[in-house]
Amino acid sequence: MAGLGVFEVNDGTFEQEVLRSEYPVLVDFWAAWCGPCRALAPVVDEIAVQNLGKLKVMKMDVDKNPATPGRYGIRGIPALLLFKDGKVADQIVGFVPKEVIDKSIAKVLSEAKSVAKPVSNTTAAAPVADVPKVTVNA
Question: Which of 9, 26, 34, 60 is an active site residue?
Answer without folding.
Answer: 34
